[in-house]
Amino acid sequence: MITNILAFIFILGSAVILHEFGHFIVAKLLKIRVETFSVGFGPRLFGKKWGQTDYRVSAIPLGGYVKLGGDESNSPIEGAGASDIPEHEMFNLRPRWQRILVALAGPVMNIITALAIPFAGAMIYGVPATPAPVVSAVARGGAAEVAGLKPGDRIVSFNGTENPKWNTIRGDALLSPGQPLPLIVERSGKRTPLTLTPTAVTEDGETAGFLDFVPDYGDVPVIVREIEPNTPAAEAGLQPGDRILSVDGQPVRSAEQVTQFIRDHKSQPITLTVNRAGQPKDITATARKLQDGRERLGFRPDEEIPPQPVGLAGAGAYAVSSNLEILRLTGKALGQVVTGQRSARNTLSGPIGIYNAAAASVERLGWAGLFGMLGFLSLNLGIFNLLPIPVLDGGAIFLLLLEGLLATIGLKLSMTVRERIQQVGFVMVILLMVFVISNDVVKLFSRGPSNSRPDATEPAK
């Protein structure tokens, strides 16, 4: 619990601080007075004043702000500014292009962070191998088998995308639980159209779609990725990181093979031969019915995909492509909400949803999950703040551009109009906050038994 709370504070706090630091550093470089650097909104809890800037933590931990001298556009939220600021330090008296640069700097800093994290990971560890969209193993009775997929099939079209990459296939399936998706496979030199309906799986109140087949990563090790407490696997001494060599004497080639063998030998002792610290070890356990009602050993086998070393160009390309894929899936999910294909409840999350996602990422992936979640949140925060909604940075940029356009015909926005626009934007943001928080609470208290995903149907990245 403590680890999860600390991870949540680090992820959310870092995303907010980096965003506000973007505004802060550009304002400082342009010699604009920065009155307040606040993490959170509302009453000041604690902080320290250095020079002319009050660095503080405020009571409502749903974002933050940088209060610039002379900028009273958000005074209902940030409070009134000082009245003795020299004109040359006032934000509102600066050229329009400087004010746009300051507004842009926050979202840009978030986007840079989202790019920097996978770039650094790629430079240090390499990039995950991306398999060809070729079926290696099919889960018995799963969506792929029902659709008619067979080992060796190459997917040449998926949901309208020609020659798709594996990440595209998996991403589209995750967003389409229970929805028929057209695909074309190449089998024995012939192209065969099929329809695959991803299996709908609900975990922690969120529903996603799974394909129930494993792509061909080649001959890679199969390891124990996770072990649930108080299960036969845990009681028998199986440990995360064990490499599974064989199951009841059969050499192991894929995680799905292990899972399928356990399904086929329920209530029978199963011996797993594993490699632990270079030494072979036999572990015997018998599956039993667990809390989710399924008869399992209680562990998740997974393919261990060795990363591929890359240079600067490869790391940069990986950082850009991974972030573009996140944006593509986010845009598609929001589009499904608009068209009614997906519920807003299953798409939008607030602080509780972020906490749950952060906790799950850290528990499953450790440091990689921590920084991966920070990159994901930073990217979404940066893009969201670019939307032309008053109170947000995008709204400020929009108003500045609108003022510039009106100035060309001799008009300008009155202070009264600006204040009304800001008030509307403030109400919109408050309503959005109320919705996502209430949505989190509803999901938290209406969560029933999870329709858990099978232990191994696809390898993790």
Structural overview:
This protein has 461 residues and is α+β, with helices and mostly antiparallel strands. The protein has three domains: 1-30 and 94-129 and 309-453, no CATH class; 132-216, PDZ domain (Pdz3 Domain), CATH 2.30.42.10; 222-296, Pdz3 Domain (Roll). Helix content is 43%, strand content 25%. The protein contains twelve helices and 18 strands. The chain has helices at 2-29, 75-78, 96-125, 143-147, 166-174, 232-236, 255-264, 312-339, 351-365, 367-385, 393-407, 415-446, and strands spanning 34-50, 53-68, 132-138, 154-158, 161-162, 181-187, 190-196, 199-203, 206-210, 213-216, 222-227, 243-247, 250-251, 269-276, 279-286, 288-289, 295-296, 299-303. The strands form seven sheets. Strands 5-4-6-7 form a four-stranded antiparallel sheet. Strands 13-12-14-15 form a four-stranded antiparallel sheet. A hairpin with a 5-residue loop joins strand 16 (288-289) and strand 17 (295-296). Helix 1 crosses helix 9 (351-365). The longest helix has 32 residues, at 415-446. It is elongated. The two termini are 25 Å apart.
Average of pLDDT: 85
Largest sheet: 4 strands, antiparallel
Molecular shape: elongated
Q: Helix tally?
A: 12
The total strand number stands at: 18
Gist?
The protein is an alpha+beta fold and 461 residues long. It folds into 3 domains: 211 residues, no CATH class; 85 residues, PDZ domain (Pdz3 Domain, Roll); 75 residues, PDZ domain (Pdz3 Domain, Roll), CATH 2.30.42.10.
